[in-house]
Amino acid sequence: MVGEGRPLFLQIAESVEDAIVDGSLGEEERAPSTNELAAFHRINPATAAKGVNLLTDKGVLYKRRGIGMFVAPGARELLLTERRTAFAERFLDPLLVEAARLGLGPDDLARMIADRARAAQRPTNGDPR
Known about the structure:
By secondary structure, the chain is mainly α. It has 2 domains: 8-75, Winged helix-like DNA-binding domain superfamily/Winged helix DNA-binding domain (Arc Repressor Mutant, subunit A, Orthogonal Bundle); 76-121. Helices cover 62% and strands 6% of the residues. It has 5 helices and 2 strands. The protein has helices at 8-21, 34-41, 45-58, 75-102, 106-121; strands at 61-64, 68-71. Strands 1-2 form a two-stranded antiparallel sheet. The protein is elongated and about 60 Å long. The two termini are 39 Å apart.
């Protein structure tokens, strides 16, 4: 995790978000505490707290007094929506601009994507299936 060129607190927040998105940390489940995150990643607890606070501010985590932090209801869907929007902005918008330059329409793109997906699913060990 350390050394990715991004602030540690953002990396901590993203690692918790990843666990929520992939389902390994479910809604209403207890999230790792600031101290647990700090010990696991060998970082200052204040840095881990900054990442947790970011998630609390976004409505992804909430605190149960005296018990700990928990994944908020709807957190997974919130994160999926956020990531889908970021995906579209990062990948689809430039794709659509270039497709327009090349005279490709939505049907052309859909066909190209389907062809690439099929090619990616083919075994690469010489098996013709």
